[in-house]
Amino acid sequence: MARRQFALALHTLILLARTPGSTTSQSLAGSVNAHSSGVRRMLATLGQAGLVDAVEGRDGGYRLAQPPDMITLKDIYCAIAHEPLLPCHRPISPHCPISAAVGPAINAIVADAEARFQDALECRTLAEIANSVDGTVTWLH
Question: How far apart are CA 26 and CA 111, in angstroms?
């Protein structure tokens, strides 16, 4: 779930980074192939994290709240992911001593992997990813 939400948020923010002005949730939803109400919920979450602004009025919509080179992929991930990328170990059998003992070891590895993943995300910005997208893409107006 976290991977899918992160990918959807990243895709949406790339669109906003590459779109002059603001754009509607309906336009964004069409590009990311999701329902506009789901996109609005995600945009609200990104707004609470200070990544997106809602613009009201006739020409309203959404836009980035800060320049794309100031938004790290970790910012996006932390705003969206409410669970670690990798699930924690749950004992297969609570009565099995191996199953119970292996849990803390696996959870420590998962926590280390999550920390390293977030460190890698912190080194990359939305601008880098948006700029790496093929220049032949038609962007929203």
Answer: 37
